[in-house]
Amino acid sequence: MILINNLQTRYAHRRRSIDAAIAKVIDRGYVVLGPEVKNFEAAFARYVGVSHCIGLGNGTDAIELALRGLGVTQGDMVATVANAGMYTTTAMLAIGASPHFMDVAAESHHATLEQVVQAVDAGCRAVVITHLYGAAVRDIASMASYCHERNVPLIEDCAQAHGAKIDGRQVGSFGRAASFSFYPTKNLGGLGDGGAVVTSDDTVANRIAKLRQYGWSSKYVVTLAGAKNSRLDELQASILSELLPFLGQDNARRREIAARYSASIFHPFVEPPPVRNDDGYVAHLYVIRVCNRDQLRAHLNERGVAAEIHYPIPDHRQPLLSIRCSGITLPITEQNAQQTLTLPCYPEMTDEEVGKVIEAVNSWVS
Ligand SMILES: *Cc1c(COP(=O)(O)O)cnc(C)c1O
User: Where are the active-site residues found (predicted)?
Assistant: First the structure.
């Protein structure tokens, strides 16, 4: 079976780096917020091109603490998309903020500048922009400057886009702050949960550094409300520091696989994604559009190819929110949720496996 992600091969490829990273932490005996977290934070901030990185427990906490760090509190309205797996909405709900859902463009699956303008006009206190599926949002610079003019902080969610660039600038460097996840299957992932906020704003960085550790200003002295315990693990930080130098080549390999899919998948019912052959695209997920999705998925499974749906239920249609959001319709988001299907696309795939996926799709008799 060709899996949707294969962590066994991923770790086998990097076994020596990972073993060394773990050994270093064990030898030192410093396991929480120690030198490895500091090193990784400095390296990752430098990589993104910002002044600060604050290592956290996971990517959802990163969104929550970025929002809190920017002053979002209970009752505030925050703009987000409804097609990105509920992570941002979960973060908002933890604060008691309420989501203002923006519909997306059909091709890109991203929020548009027009939607951002509407959200700000509607009184949103912050805007979260998700670089979904590994594609940098093309208008991110215009969105960021519009929000900046209106004094509404823009947060980039970069959990699917580590290393993607727009006009030579890394995603994560456009907004007032940005969140990353280092969940194992992400473009940069560890051996467990991990996340970070990056920002060039000293005050925001300082607040988030406190919010991640009980609201302490110094040991056992609590000064800040809305805090939690969410620290990047010393082991994960050590591993991520070892893996960061491979991110560029891994992204290039992902892009190569996506380009091959798009050049070779021919089926009247299958619409490949708009693959970009530039560094604005890091191919986190290769998502096609197809009418009889379940039929194709079953066919692929029969041929030994896994396929997934990212994501089957838009946020505003989740059982948790369905009553509260019953008056909301997001036509494109809802249609995409019915028609998208994700094919395996990750750097450890062999050329032969990529060929097998293409053959499996093309041989579908619908
Ligand atoms: C994975 C992901 C997150 C959440 O990250 P966790 O580390 O799993 O909490 C947030 N946003 C997007 C778009 C993601 O893909």
Answer: 186
Residue 15: inside a domain, yes or no? yes
Q: Is the CB of 6 under 6 A from ligand 1?
A: no
Residue pLDDT, tens place only, 255-279 = 999 999 999 999 999 999 987 888 9
Domain shared by 352 and 325, yes or no: yes
Centre of ligand 1 to C-alpha 335, Å, is: 22
Pair 261, 358: CB distance under 8 Å? yes
Q: What's the CA-to-centroid distance between 128 and ligand 1, angstroms? A: 13
The token pair at 2 is 């060709």
Does the beta carbon of 185 lie inside 6 Å of ligand 1?
no
What is the average pLDDT value for the chain, to the nearest integer?
A: 97
Same domain, 167 and 257: no
The dihedral through the CA atoms of 107, 111, 114, 115 has a sign that is: positive
Looking at the domain assignment, is residue 2 inside a domain?
no
Domain range for residue 310? 247-362
